[in-house]
Amino acid sequence: MPNNLKSKSNAERFIIAYNSIDYSLRSIYGFKRSISYADLVRKSVSLNSVVRKYEEELIDYGRLRNSIVHRTNPNFVIAEPHDEVVEEFEKIAKLIATPPTAFDKICHKEVVVCENNVSLKETLQIMARTGYHNIPVYEGTMLQGVAIGPKIMQKLGENLIQGTDATEYLTKTNVTDVIAKGQENPFFLVADRNMTIEKALNHFYINRKLSSIIITEKGTYNEKPIGIITSADILDMNAVLENY
Known about the structure:
244 residues, alpha/beta, 7 strands, 13% strand, elongated
């Protein structure tokens, strides 16, 4: 606990956490001051993975806030919440107001990439050698798309059904012929190094097709990656938030 909170009562700490959550959600998502705290929480459920996880607690603590302050004087405390309640509310407030970044806490910083002129055979060899199934494909410093292992295998299977020779297909087909391309592609996205774990989790929650998030310094396609997050990291991201 920060030193400046040690001297405060539980009620004061609780109200600070409440105000932090209220202010942060209104600021982040542009909600009007006129909507209630409860509506603020409910509207944030689809936007924020932390709110979604702790929705019931946030609603309950909102009711508790109204019970521990005087109705006509919000600075006059009439009850003190338990230590456990205050600590959990402070934890939730911290996750919402100052969430950890994915780059600092979870993403793989040694990103395996391949050039746009390689064959599918070479791409699969890279995947087998490294154990990674989401390989960003670049032409110089420009991201062309992401080679996704299961998608490549699906294309290979479709060609085998049509009677195509596997070796010929893998050797003669360029990786750019089968990669997920374009900025509107549902299978990957690019974000800057300040992306929070909460936002990353929300992207995976909203888009179940999302396979990877490529982290660059400024979040543009004409930069080399400095990190990557995949759907396989979801459990680890939840664990980081749980212990933050």
